[in-house]
Write a structure and sequence with these properties.
10 helices; disordered C terminus; 5 strands; alpha/beta
């Protein structure tokens, strides 16, 4: 009450109008200051909104560019992985076809070799028939082989014909000199074991012919003893000359180019045959030699097949090593792909966070055009309240 009464008395005094005018001026100044402050705040808010809008647009553009780059990278990585898998499949298919073609070619070669062998056997059969026909002619074996050189040449020629018809050139040699200085008529080159086998083509024809021509039993027995002694001596000579430990096999062959001599030995001189067995000298005729050569050919073929099987096994092991390395590389590629997928997932999470923050910024609302009536009246200045 004292303040109010003091103000009323002041206004009613001689300076009352002056005081009133000063107070109204102060009020107007305060109102103008408040208005200018509010106007400045609205301008700064508008500029901030514009800046935030630009930032949001830039973020949206960056997100779009990043999404395009990630999609392109993922497509490129998927394409490379598909190409790598396609290349691996093609290499495996090519290797399988190569192995199949190799086996097919080997089978064809084997079939061709068998057909060639059949042809050669047919030629040998025809030659044997020709020899049989010649033996029935008037020229006897004694007339043809009148001396040892002719007899040796006949045996060597027949032996050479049989060997060359049954075996490949790399499997034999003629007139081969051994380390002991002795020369074998033929040397069959077999792998160890058994090793090389020497073949001798000489035979005691004179004593056999005397045995065939003996007129009575007493002379036949005497000729038989001579024939047995000659064959036994020849067997011992072959065993001594052509069986060399470490160089040849532990056996040798004595080739008899006459089936008649071979039959006579096995029919009436069994002790000589058994002695040759003990000395590991096998007596063969043209027929049995052909069977022996076929066995030798089978042994050589088996050795060759084992050698080829070893080569194939070595190649298969190399292929398995390549497949192992390929599996390791595919595992590394898979780990890289998994790492890329993980990185893309993390990038996707980051972009989603940025998108959510952008949405929150866009959700903010600032009213730039609020009417003046909605403004709250300014509170009186503290010093006026005190007055």
């Amino acid at each position: 009450m004292n303040v109010v009464s003091s103000v009323q008395s002041l206004l009613q005094g001689p300076h009352g109008m002056t005081v009133l005018a000063v107070g109204l001026g102060l009020v107007l100044l305060v109102v103008a200051g408040l208005y200018l402050a509010a106007r400045r705040s609205r301008d700064e808010t508008a500029r901030e909104m514009a800046r935030l809008t630009q930032i949001s647009e830039r973020l949206a553009q960056s997100q779009a560019d990043l999404s395009e780059k990630l999609a392109a990278s993922q497509a490129e990585l998927s394409g490379r992985l598909a190409q790598s898998q396609t290349g691996v499949s093609e290499r495996l298919d090519q290797l399988s076809r190569r192995l199949g073609d190799g086996l097919a070619q080997q089978t064809e070669k084997t079939g061709a070799n068998l057909k060639e062998l059949e042809k050669r056997l047919a030629v040998i059969d025809r030659a044997q028939q020709t020899i049989t026909g010649l033996s029935q002619q008037m020229v006897s074996l004694q007339d043809i082989l009148s001396n040892k050189q002719s007899r040796g040449a006949f045996g060597e020629i027949q032996l050479q014909d049989l060997v060359t018809a049954a075996l490949p050139p790399s499997a034999y040699g003629f007139q081969v000199t051994l380390t002991n200085g002795k020369r074998a008529d033929c040397l069959l080159k077999l792998p160890n074991p058994p090793g090389a086998i020497a073949v001798d083509s000489k035979f005691p024809l004179e004593s056999f012919q005397a045995l065939r021509d003996a007129p009575n039993e007493e002379m036949r027995k005497a000729a038989g003893r001579t024939f047995a002694a000659d064959v036994g001596t020849h067997v011992r000579a072959i065993a001594e000359k052509y069986i060399i430990p470490g160089e040849t096999a532990d056996s040798a062959l004595m080739f008899l180019p006459s089936e008649a001599v071979y039959a006579e030995l096995h029919a009436n001189f069994r002790n000589i045959v058994e002695d040759s067995f003990r000395r590991r000298v096998w007596i063969v005729s043209p027929t049995t030699l052909m069977a022996t050569l076929n066995t030798v050919r089978a042994v050589l073929k088996d050795a060759k097949m084992r050698e080829q099987a070893g080569v194939i096994q070595a190649e298969v092991m190399k292929m398995l090593d390549d497949v192992g390395r390929l599996d390791t590389r595919v595992g590394k590629l898979q780990s890289h792909f998994d790492l890329a997928v993980k990185d893309m997932r993390e990038i996707r999470i980051s972009t989603e966070k940025i998108t959510k923050k952008g949405d929150k910024i866009e959700a903010l609302h600032f009213d730039d055009e609020a009417p003046a009536d909605d403004l709250e009246p300014p509170s009186p200045a503290p010093h006026l309240r005190e007055v």
